[in-house]
UniProtKB/TrEMBL annotation:
CDD domains linked to this entry: DRE_TIM_HMGL
Designated name of the protein: hydroxymethylglutaryl-CoA lyase
Top-rank EC class of the record's enzyme: lyase
Reaction(s) catalysed (UniProt annotation): (3S)-3-hydroxy-3-methylglutaryl-CoA = acetoacetate + acetyl-CoA
Entry's family note: Belongs to the HMG-CoA lyase family.
GO biological process: ketone body biosynthetic process; L-leucine catabolic process
Pathway where it operates: Metabolic intermediate metabolism; (S)-3-hydroxy-3-methylglutaryl-CoA degradation; acetoacetate from (S)-3-hydroxy-3-methylglutaryl-CoA: step 1/1
Enzyme Commission no: 4.1.3.4
Cited Gene3D superfamilies: Aldolase class I (3.20.20.70)
Organism: Tepidimonas aquatica
Upper taxonomic lineage: Bacteria, Pseudomonadati, Pseudomonadota, Betaproteobacteria, Burkholderiales
A molecular-function term among this protein's GO annotations: metal ion binding
Leader peptide range in chain numbering: none
Length: 302
């Protein structure tokens, strides 16, 4: 019998990863309310926004407004993406608890997503990491395409180990193993996590799985079986990456919480309040939730 952690920490990425790809502008007030609803439901880590070029990702151009509008709760960690010093300097004024540098295990994705090679990305991240740590801000490294790439196809675990080693060498404190396009299956994501674990202990590795092929919940379980207990998810399964066409959102937070609570694993999250949050943001966006658990629970409520 596999063993599972007693407690799992979920980071909800919906305000950033979930909304970044929306074509219609989502008002800052809606983004702010989403964060407030998530924290009221018990989320203690939330990825709020990114400080990237508004020409590349227009939806995140309201980063300052969103961060300024937050009513912060003690004990909640608010994370933001900063790909370079320009982004970090802009973010600093908004007092994030954690910044995220984001690289890729695939050269082609690195070029399409952040307009530079993997080696150049590490050069850009190094001063960001140094400045963040000096300012007392935590640093996470997102690693995209750890299983497959929309441009290069399969990505071998050696590439993940290479990227994790580079992240470690510049002082990144913890890393996300991301299946950006959701092509992974349980054993493949386990190989990617094991590759990252050559440089980071499992306490400092998060699972970040998209659900394009319906594998994200199974992949999340596979990560837990290895001992990973930091899991990323997006309420209502919102999301997708602008540089990974056709990729769907992350595993739905409601589905992860339903599974974990059913396994007797504590998350600190109120599933009913989370389902309400997913229903609310889905209504704001004019679409149905992608969460199967939320759909079932809403139907049961009548
Ligand atoms: C990284 C850059 C900025 C490089 O973009 P670049 O064009 O190479 O940058 P540059 O230094 O040559 O500057 C060009 C212009 O961008 C501006 N600029 C430069 N930096 C910034 C900044 N930080 N904020 C705002 N503006 C910026 C800069 O000021 C200049 O403006 P101009 O003079 O032309 O008016 C660009 O490629 C970019 O913004 N890419 C978007 C990346 C992105 O947000 N992708 C989605 C998030 S990653 C993701 O979703 C995956 C993840 C994390 O969820 C995990 C997974 O599932 O895989």
């Amino acid at each position: 019998m596999p063993t599972y952690p007693e407690r799992v920490r979920i980071l909800d990425v919906s305000p950033r990863d979930g909304l970044q790809n929306e074509k219609q502008p989502v008002p800052a007030a809606v983004k702010i309310e989403l964060v407030h609803r998530l924290q009221a439901a018990g989320l203690r880590e939330i990825e709020v926004t990114s400080y990237v070029s508004p020409k590349w990702v227009p939806q995140m151009a309201d980063n300052h407004e969103v961060m300024a509008g937050l009513q912060r709760r003690p004990g909640v960690r608010y994370a933001v993406l900063t790909p370079n010093l320009k982004g970090f300097e802009a973010a600093l004024a908004d007092r994030p608890d954690e910044i995220v540098v984001f690289g890729a295990a695939s050269e082609a994705f690195s070029q399409r997503n952040i307009n530079c090679s993997i080696a150049q990305s590490i050069e850009r991240f190094a001063p960001v990491v140094e400045a963040a740590l000096q300012a007392g801000i935590a640093v996470r490294g997102a690693m995209s395409c750890t299983v497959g790439c929309p441009y290069e196809g399969d990505v071998p675990p050696e590439r993940v180990a290479m990227l994790a080693g580079l992240m470690k060498s510049i002082g990144v404190q913890r890393v996300d193993v991301a299946d950006t396009i959701g092509v992974g299956t349980p054993l493949k994501v386990q190989r990617a996590i094991e590759a990252a674990a050559r440089h980071y202990d499992l306490d400092h590795i998060s699972a970040h799985f998209h659900d394009t092929y319906g594998q994200a919940l199974a992949n999340t379980l596979a990560a837990l079986q290895l001992g990973v207990w930091n899991v990323q998810a997006s309420v209502a399964g919102l999301g997708g990456c602008p540089y990974a066409k056709g990729a769907t959102g992350n595993v739905a937070t409601e589905d992860v919480v339903y599974m974990l609570h059913g396994m007797g694993i504590d998350t600190g999250i109120d599933l009913d309040a989370l389902v309400d949050t997913g229903a609310w943001i889905s209504a704001q966006l004019g679409r149905a939730t992608a969460s199967r658990a939320a759909r079932a629970l809403l139907a049961r409520r009548g």
